């Protein structure tokens, strides 16, 4: 060891005891008071100034300053209240900027409990920061208060730091007891030492040592600060209402989040007991995330505002919540915090996402978290569960994050060890989905890329029952309190709508290829969207998603196979005879055949209270939110047609206002316009200029190979980039965003996000059909991006669709994509300056000319 690699504590005698400090050392002082820590810092700083070292003071606590302002000391004020990630990242970046061989003094780490309320996160900060300080050959002083932290926090700090020193002040005498001094040893190093001036006198006598330690109040190592807070709050349940409300609000800041519209709604409906009940079902610490909050709040609104009217129809929940702090703990304790910090920079945002995603899929969890996982799984037994993302920003006013993060079903079959491993991997998959391309783009496009996005997790028992070897609910879907997709002027927008499926709700939130969900107007559920009667079978649901006990996976099956099972309910609630198909079969000469059925839910609508309850529930939630809402639900039925609804999720419906009435111009002739129809649009009343129309030819698109269809999607993405800040309309056959190219162009939403208007048109000849995607994740993206949406049912009554209006204009494809002339027959880009689209939501008229 070179003499110049040694650093002084400012106490010559103690330097001899520990053989000096070394570059790279992190020094942690366990103290009883801040003033004791200040004394040790004073010795260190005075010597550093004498040696002309670079001195940096990291100020974040509310306690008295450790160091006074001085031209010899650079002070950084860091706001710990912004959360762990912002705090740790800012400190990481300043350490990087200051470079090698700087000297640091940090405020007392115990004060971080005031902001994060968690020993776990205090320990995580130390573990994330100290290795970087060590790597840059710095010397850093930290303090923690004695008897304030858990055994595991102290153990984590001891494991990470180079020096851990107990500092005692007894009867005006100062004692230092080294507990850890890394890579140094002497026969007397770990005895307590009495500091007298610059001397450090070793206390080796058993009599003196026992007398010293006997006088020290070692106290009890506490529970995690988080648990202490909530345990103390339980004692307030017998206090006055005002006292309980004060405590409740404080706890909500720790569990729910900061001031927001959602926070104040929760404050209005939750009691102190409610908050404590939520905390009792939390694994780890920290926020429970937006999806969990939305689900709990909606249930509470129904309970309080609905009185007893909904009680018989609501299935209870027994969910668990994996706190957001576990996400950061997982990253820090697996040694990935440096990579996380690099990914959070503007230049590293996309560059390092793939590497971090891969690591997130293969980490290990702390032992105490593993034990809590085990206990939760023991509670659920072999009941199927679903592990759902519940990030801090999810399902809030302004940001739905619909479909951006993963949800994973655990069928929960096998040995306890197999079930545990499947659950752990499901949690990893949800964590890794924070680095999905769609999620990254969504956060970037909405200005959220640099904000904390901790991932909490909602663990729910899957709603449904076992039918043979399968498990599923009878019905599931999404519901909206406002029906903005109206295709008939008699539809009551305020009655709401459902997007309904048989089986698991995955088909309701996704655009499932080859299948169509049932769109239900709650004012008249028997009304069907625009289609011919004979098309009802074709454009309905033919497969269902379910959980397979034998395969231990989520699967899909043909309806015919499942409807042959005993369903523990009247099947006629869900299916009706398909008389149109029956008549055709008789015309073809078939005589002895089984009458086909149609999955139309007709008797469900007419012979149960389901529609009434859903309509009233949506109205109740919307009134409480003072905003349209979007829910996810399941429902299960009995032989007597009674049922239970499981409310899985509720969030504000991200939609623009309805706008004022727009006057629709009169048409002289159909050739004067591009298209016109009654209803079948979303986006309110608008008058928008259209500078460019990008039209995909159904006939030419269908001729392409599957590979070329994907190439069309890629080219649409490039055109989308070129259309940023322009008023462009994208018009294509069938479903935008389909994963089956034969049903529509298989774009990702980020490849069409700059369009002002999105049109899907039907083509009977080519077999394309728009899907009324209202309520799906695709729909959420459209509405959040304020894209006006139109479904054009070509050939149907009151529908004009005049593609010649576009095709007669010069095709500008090669102006935008010079190397793609081979696609000119498929993609036509027209300059339509002067064209406008008009819609009036009151009269339900739409015109583009």
TrEMBL record:
The keyword Transferase applies. GO terms for molecular function: ATP binding; kinase activity. Residues 288-667 form the Pyruvate phosphate dikinase AMP/ATP-binding domain. InterPro entries: ATP_grasp_subdomain_1, PPDK_AMP/ATP-bd. The keyword Magnesium does not apply. Pfam families: PPDK_N (PF01326). Keywords: Kinase, Pyruvate, Transferase. This is Pyruvate kinase.
């Amino acid at each position: 060891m070179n003499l110049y690699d040694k650093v002084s504590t400012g106490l010559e005698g103690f330097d001899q005891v520990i053989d000096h400090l070394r570059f790279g050392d992190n020094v942690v002082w366990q103290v009883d008071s801040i003033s004791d820590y200040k004394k040790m810092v004073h010795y260190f700083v005075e010597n550093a100034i004498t040696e002309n070292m670079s001195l940096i003071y990291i100020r974040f606590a509310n306690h008295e300053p450790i160091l006074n302002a001085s031209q010899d000391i650079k002070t950084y004020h860091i706001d710990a209240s912004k959360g762990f990630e912002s705090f740790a990242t800012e400190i990481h970046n300043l350490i990087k900027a200051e470079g090698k061989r700087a000297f640091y003094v940090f405020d007392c780490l115990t004060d971080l409990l005031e902001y994060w309320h968690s020993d776990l996160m205090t320990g995580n900060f130390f573990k994330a920061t100290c290795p970087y300080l060590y790597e840059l050959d710095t010397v850093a002083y930290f303090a923690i208060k004695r008897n304030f932290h858990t055994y595991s926090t102290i153990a984590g700090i001891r494991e990470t730091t180079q020096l851990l020193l107990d500092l005692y002040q007894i009867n005006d005498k100062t004692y230092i007891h080294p507990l850890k001094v890394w890579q140094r040893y002497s026969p007397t190093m770990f005895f307590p030492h009495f500091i007298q001036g610059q001397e450090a006198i070793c206390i080796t006598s058993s009599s003196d040592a026992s007398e010293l330690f006997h006088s020290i109040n070692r106290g009890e190592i506490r529970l995690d600060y988080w648990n202490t807070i909530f345990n103390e709050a339980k004692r307030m349940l017998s206090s006055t209402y005002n006292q309980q409300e004060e405590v409740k609000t404080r706890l909500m800041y720790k569990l729910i989040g900061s001031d927001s519209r959602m926070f104040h709604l929760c404050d209005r409906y939750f009691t102190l007991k409610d908050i404590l009940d939520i905390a009792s079902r939390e694994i780890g610490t920290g926020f429970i995330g937006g999806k969990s909050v939305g689900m709990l709040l909606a249930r509470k609104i129904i309970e309080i505002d609905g009185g007893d009217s909904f009680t018989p129809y609501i299935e209870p929940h027994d969910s668990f919540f994996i706190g957001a702090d576990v996400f950061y703990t997982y990253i820090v304790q697996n040694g990935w915090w440096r990579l996380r910090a690099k990914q959070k920079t503007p230049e590293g945002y996309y560059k390092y996402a793939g590497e971090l995603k891969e690591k997130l899929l293969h980490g290990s969890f702390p032992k105490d978290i593993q034990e809590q996982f085990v206990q939760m799984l023991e509670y659920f037994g072999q009941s199927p569960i679903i592990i759902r993302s519940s990030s801090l920003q999810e399902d809030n006013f302004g940001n739905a994050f619909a479909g951006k993060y993963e949800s994973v079903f655990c069928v929960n079959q096998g040995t306890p060890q197999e079930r545990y491993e499947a659950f752990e991997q499901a949690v990893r998959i949800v964590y890794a989905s924070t680095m999905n391309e769609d999620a990254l783009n969504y956060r970037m496009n909405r200005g959220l890329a640099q904000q904390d996005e901790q991932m909490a997790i909602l663990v729910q028992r899957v709603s449904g029952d076992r039918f043979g070897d399968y498990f599923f609910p009878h019905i599931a879907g999404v519901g909206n309190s406002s029906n903005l997709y109206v295709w008939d002027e008699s539809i009551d927008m305020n009655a709401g709508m459902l997007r309904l499926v048989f089986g698991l709700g995955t088909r309701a939130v996704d655009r499932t290829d080859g299948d169509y969900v049932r769109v239900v107007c709650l004012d008249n559920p028997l009304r069907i969207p625009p289609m011919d009667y004979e098309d009802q079978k074709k454009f309905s649901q033919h497969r269902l998603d379910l959980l397979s006990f034998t395969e231990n996976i989520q699967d899909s099956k043909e309806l015919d196979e499942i409807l042959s099972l005993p369903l523990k309910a009247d099947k006629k609630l869900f299916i009706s005879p398909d008389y149109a198909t029956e008549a055709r079969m008789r015309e073809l000469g078939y005589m002895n055949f089984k009458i086909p059925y149609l999955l139309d839910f007709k008797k469900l609508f007419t012979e149960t209270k389901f529609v009434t309850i859903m309509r009233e529930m949506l109205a109740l939630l919307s009134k409480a939110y003072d905003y349209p809402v979007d829910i996810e639900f399941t429902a299960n039925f009995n032989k007597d047609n009674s049922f239970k609804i499981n409310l899985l999720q509720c969030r504000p419906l991200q939609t623009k206002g309805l706008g004022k009435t727009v006057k629709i111009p009169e048409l002289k002739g159909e050739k004067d316009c591009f298209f016109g129809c009654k209803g079948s649009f979303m986006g309110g009343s608008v008058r928008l200029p259209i500078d460019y129309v990008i039209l995909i030819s159904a006939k030419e698109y269908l001729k392409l190979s599957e590979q070329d269809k994907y190439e069309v999607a890629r080219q649409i993405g490039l055109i989308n980039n070129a259309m940023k800040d322009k008023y462009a309309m994208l018009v294509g056959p069938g479903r935008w965003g389909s994963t089956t190219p034969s049903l529509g162009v298989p774009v990702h939403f980020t490849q069409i996000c700059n369009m002002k208007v999105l049109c899907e048109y039907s083509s009977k000849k080519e077999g394309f059909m728009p899907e009324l995607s209202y309520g799906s994740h695709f729909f959420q993206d459209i509405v959040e991006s304020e894209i006006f949406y139109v479904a054009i049912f070509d050939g149907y009554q009151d529908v004009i669709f005049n593609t010649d209006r576009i095709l007669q204009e010069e095709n500008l494809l090669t102006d935008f994509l010079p190397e793609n002339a081979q696609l000119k027959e498929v993609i036509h880009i027209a300059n339509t300056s002067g064209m406008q689209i008009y819609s009036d939501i009151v009269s339900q008229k739409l015109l583009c000319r």
